[in-house]
Amino acid sequence: MHNATKYGVLLAVLAMFAIPSAGLTQPATGKVSVDLRGGVALPAGNMATITDIGGMAGASAMWNFHPNWAIRADFDYMKLDDGRDGFGVLLSPPQDLMFFGGSFEVNFNAPRYQSMPFTFMLNVGAGIMNMKVDNTFDAGHPAVGFDNSYPAFQGGMKIGYQVEPWLNIFVNGTAYFILLDSADTGVFGFNFDNGWVIPVTAGVRLTFLR
Question: Which residue has the higher pLDDT, 114 or 98?
Fold first, then answer.
């Protein structure tokens, strides 16, 4: 199935779940929110071949135009550790990844039986992922000048706890799918045209009340 079709189906499913039901809608307490998060970044697929687990920090700004929906502007910084093959040969020095983009977020209505103030959210979006090799780690490596930006798609899920109307604490998992140029990636020992990075984070959401 084409990627655009997949994302269209996903958005349609989310829309069905997000339609407010009588007695279930959680009223919005504010129109603008900010997320601050940090955790680990897990490379997967081709990215796991050339790099290793690293750290991550990020932030998002949300406009909550409906109790169930928000438009987000997202920024994430990830630092992946150096990766080596089975013989100990360095495939990539550490890499800095920076994502700039946006997404739609759906906030699910609480189940009827829920007595605790848990929140459940999904988001899908796209943007640009800049990938830059740490050229101070190994100045002689073929990838020393690697500094490129590529399209990237993201999808994430979040479980939170509403401590106060203005404060939510959460755990969050996101998957980034990066569309690379195979002509650029030969410097890592083989050519590939896509990669995955999966940050797992914890953080806080601050909502500016009306």
Answer: 98
